[in-house]
Amino acid sequence: MTLAAALILLIFIIAFVLILGEFVHRTTAAWMGAVAMLAVGKLTGTLDWCTDGECEGNLFAAIEFNVIGLLMGMMIFAGMLEISGFFEFIAIKATKLSKGDPWMLVVYLGTFTTLISVVIDNVTAIILIAPVTIKICNKLQISAIPLLITEAILSNTGGVATLVGDPPNVMIAASTGFTFNSFIEHLTPLTVVAWVATMGYMRYYYRDWIETKPEHVEEVLLEDEWATVKDLSMMNRTLAALALTIVTFSVHEIIHLELEISAIALGGAGLAIALSLPDLPDVVERVEWPALLFFAGLFAMVGGLEGVGHLTALASWIFDTFAEDPLMLAVAVIWVSAIASAIIDNIPFAAAMIPVIHKLGELSEGDINTTPLFWALAMGCGFGGNATPIGSSANVMAVSISERGGHKITTGEWMRVGLPVMVITCVVATIFMILFYDTLYVNP
């Protein structure tokens, strides 16, 4: 390992400790790490700026602006819905449906979040459901932390089921040609079992919180949900623009619409603004800017790791160790992807692993079937992201929204829930891979 590579790794470890230890704000830690990596790369010539039109060595070229654009567009939708009173309306509706029972809130909101994550990405699901959750819990005067963590974890778990449910799945499909239906065939049965197991653990872990009976249920049940709507016209027009955006998300590949997913999200948000003409400063204030900046810094840091070869070295170790047994190779990809995704976010790790898996197939001259490895990568990235608050973009958004809503989620609290869930769901994935390797996963 060169000196530059060692320094880059040390910087990432320090930044990671600062983020998880909450010694400084995670956005500050991420950008301190990104700038330090940039300085090391520039001084050593390891991470150079673009040359001859090629930008692979540019640290900031690692920032996934497609992901950040998607998040920004959906945050604008969420801000406009909040201004119109939509979240208050849904909060009272959901509370009446559950009759204030905390466990039924977990079931209803968790299931609803999962279903959203099946048809749109899990980050969007959290952006839409988390503000509702905080409104409900504020009305009942109970902690929103168990619900927010559960929703994020279930959105990650449910997102594994479909092509559009999780950003790594979108990236895998784009690289392999796997279809929407093939994701349903290969991953949905697994996801159902993993989801049930996750709900079982949540029921056990939050058993004391579930037994807490809110004191203000009767007052909320008597409220008129329609009285909370501040601007019905804005709410309806924003929901219509959001519905159109979601439909476009789902069909844009089917109809060969040559638009990035970020362009669809931002275009939909622009349409919503044009239809309703809201007070723009009020909308801008509701965008989670610290979360967007954190993602940019994290992507840059992971780009530094990839630029000096650390992620490729990890992937090579997996293949060198397990390549003789294709089944064990797939199982290893599940677990290493899960652990790595918990540490560096599953989106950049998937981006680093996809070309490495393709390269393995080329070097083996067809001796190694890479199809099961891509399914294993989808499983590991999706389930592994549950372990830490920075393991997936949905987690980061849940934490960011929780801070703004006065229900701050600590790293320790998240990992006490998320780490066991990661282990449980990865065990389920391993069992599925072992049982159905030959009959299901060797085919696209």
Describe, in plain words, how this protein is organized in 3D:
Helix 2 packs parallel to helix 15. The chain has a domain of 203 residues. Helices cover 76% and strands 0% of the residues. It contains 21 helices and no strands. It is mostly helical.
Can you tag this structure with a few keywords?
single chain; 444 residues; mainly alpha; 21 helices; globular
**First-last Cα distance:** 37 Å
Percent in helix: over 70%
Note the run of SSEs as H and E.
Answer: HHHHHHHHHHHHHHHHHHHHH
Task: Give the rounded overall mean pLDDT.
Answer: 85
- Number of separate strands: 0
Q: How many helical elements? A: 21
- Kindly name the structural category: mainly alpha
Compact summary:
This protein has 444 residues and is mostly helical. Helix content is 76%, strand content 0%.
Give the topology, please.
Blueprint: H1 3-21, H2 26-44, H3 65-84, H4 86-98, H5 102-119, H6 122-140, H7 145-159, H8 167-176, H9 180-205, H10 207-210, H11 217-221, H12 232-251, H13 261-276, H14 280-285, H15 289-307, H16 310-322, H17 326-344, H18 346-363, H19 371-384, H20 393-404, H21 411-441
